[in-house]
Amino acid sequence: MANTPGFYVFEGLDGSGKSTLTRRLLDLLQSKDVPAICFAEPTRYESGIYLRKFLSGEIELSPEKQIEAFLADREVSLQRNILPSLSEKKIVLLDRYMYSTAAYQSGENFSAREILEKNIERKFPKPEIVFYLDLKPEEALSRLKVRDTTADRFETISALQKIYKAYEEILPKNTIRLDANLSPESIAELALNHIDY
Ligand code: TYD
């Protein structure tokens, strides 16, 4: 399946700076009058709110149910956010996509590759580019500790190490790796060079 022009995805460990990068890029594009929009997964719709309950530890889900729930929310994300914006010719910047499910939900029951395959089977469109903010698990954890929020379930060193390794197994060829230790301004400038507008 071909990559989708105008569709850009941001991936990385919690604390790697994805959200800052997507926001900065959106500002940069809009300051140049380029039509652009950003979204995140999990979504803000019902299916995403349900996932936030799982992430905060309020509810438990089996590995299989977790994958199903993230795929269901992705379907909503595509139908309600991503596809309508792409058809309006906007550049879509998406904070987390199928590579997150592959990396985060992988484990004893399902490999990262198997999970990625489940996404591909659903015919979820492939982005033009995946930007991967590369940050070592130890560094991610120390950044998360200074954040003023309660920890999500994946914010432990063993979970982050598993996720880091899983990303390495599944990131596609069209991935641009960015060093998350650079300044936010430099990271945004580097990423902007790869966006076709
Ligand atoms: P994110 O919004 O990046 O974190 P926060 O808003 O807390 O800074 O992501 C929320 C969490 O969801 C993050 O720990 C990764 C997890 N996640 C999965 O486990 N699987 C997925 O498919 C997605 C999209 C996110």
UniProtKB/TrEMBL annotation:
Transmembrane segments: none annotated. It is an enzyme of class 2 (transferase). SUPFAM superfamilies: P-loop containing nucleoside triphosphate hydrolases (SSF52540). CDD domains: TMPK (cd01672). InterPro entries: P-loop_NTPase (IPR027417), Thymidylate_kin-like_dom (IPR039430), Thymidylate_kin_CS (IPR018095), Thymidylate_kinase (IPR018094). One of its GO terms (cellular component) is cytosol. ATP binds at G12, L13, D14, G15, S16, G17, K18, S19. Residues 10-187 form the Thymidylate kinase-like domain. It comes from the Bacteria. Keywords: ATP-binding, Kinase, Nucleotide biosynthesis, Nucleotide-binding, Transferase. One of its GO terms (molecular function) is dTMP kinase activity. Belongs to the thymidylate kinase family. Phosphorylation of dTMP to form dTDP in both de novo and salvage pathways of dTTP synthesis. This is Thymidylate kinase. The lineage of its organism: Bacteria, Pseudomonadati, Spirochaetota, Spirochaetia, Leptospirales. The gene is tmk.
